[in-house]
Amino acid sequence: xxxxxxxxxxxxxxxxxxxxxxxxxxxxxxxxxxxxxxxxxxxxxxxxxxxxxxxxxxxxxxxxxxxxxxxxxxxxxxxxxxxxxxxxxxxxxxxxxxxxxxxxxxxxxxxxxxxxxxxxxxxxxxxxxxxxxxxxxxxxxxxxxxxxxxxxxxxxxxxxxxxxxxxxxxxxxxxxxxxxxxxxxxxxxxxxxxxxxxxxxxxxxxxxxxxxxxxxxxxxxxxxxxxxxxxxxxxxxxxxxxxxxxxxxxxxxxxxxxxxxxxxxxxxxxxxxxxxxxxxxxxxxxxxxxxxxxxxxxxxxxxxxxxxxxxxxxxxxxxxxxxxxxxxxxxxxxxxxxxxxx
Length: 342
Ligand SMILES: Cc1c2[nH]c(c1CCC(=O)O)Cc1[nH]c(c(CCC(=O)O)c1C)Cc1[nH]c(c(CCC(=O)O)c1C)Cc1[nH]c(c(C)c1CCC(=O)O)C2
Hints:
Elements: H1 4-9, H2 30-39, H3 42-46, H4 49-63, E1 67-69, H5 76-80, E2 85-88, E3 92-95, H6 101-106, H7 113-130, E4 136-142, H8 144-153, H9 161-169, H10 171-195, E5 199-204, H11 212-233, E6 239-243, H12 253-257, E7 261-263, H13 270-276, E8 282-287, H14 291-294, H15 296-309, E9 315-319, H16 329-341
Parallel strand pairs: 1-4, 4-5, 5-6, 6-7, 7-8, 8-9
Antiparallel strand pairs: 2-3
Helix pairs in contact: 2-4, 4-7, 7-10, 8-9, 8-10, 9-10, 10-11, 15-16
The structure holds coproporphyrinogen III (CP3).
The site of coproporphyrinogen III has 22 residues, from strand 3 and strand 4.
């Protein structure tokens, strides 16, 4: 029987939505923290196929989620393109910056990325051989705009100021970077699919900071190009796009990109998303991840509200954003029991 996630992605309305969780392998789980300590740092874990496979499987063993997502990070692609990358504990990622034509010219060609990323493909292959038969394997990459915001600023930023400045002040360099990332993302995801990923997801975490014209050009258009090219290379490949905090711009995103599923964050209500986004295809989301910290009756009530709102169309249950390190693993179980048990 076809896997539930693939059925939902094909547009089927299921009595119980399939479920997985962004960042389901992460620091809220004691077994993740133990494996990560064994690996040393986060990047060593990403590039270690044996341990990356292990942490990807941990939430599947513990909770029986319907999908596993490759354990990696959206910033591995810039690293493979030649950016220096490191993580500062308690603060987040740091990268060497791209803010001029000279910086851009130092980046490697897309053909070079596999030298760095081949361990990731090996992890995908191992996962594809070891997952339970009913579990779907999701590969992923960052969307060009979101990845560019980190490459331009050299770190995470609250308002993506440096990237907005570059796109306005030096559109030539900015567009060249977006194009390189678009091309790199296609090749990166293609290798994940060849290694066994059954679905791919594009994370555009900062799409919501783009004003309307720029949203079309830098969020929608790259997502369309990547989706279309992957679907022409791999007919039938399901694609999930996540233009986070797109608000009103979620409307029409399925049709404009050709993606099978639009993931929505929790800044929109499930009723609104059912009416305006699910009308055109499968929706993924969108319980606020704070419920995984606070739990209790509110968690049960809001979980039911999400299930109820999306009941009449294709839906994959998920959080509105990644689960946080301070989440309680028991609340995750309560969410799953509520989705599956009513
Ligand atoms: C912006 C972004 C990044 N990475 C990602 C995004 C887009 C989605 C989002 O908005 O959350 C995506 C990502 N990061 C990770 C995954 C793995 C798959 C999954 O479980 O969803 C995915 C899909 C693992 C990770 N990526 C990171 C962790 C925590 C690493 C650790 O210390 O163990 C994990 C499990 C680190 C990371 N990676 C990134 C940041 C800003 C950080 C530091 C923040 C933090 O410390 O939580 C960049």
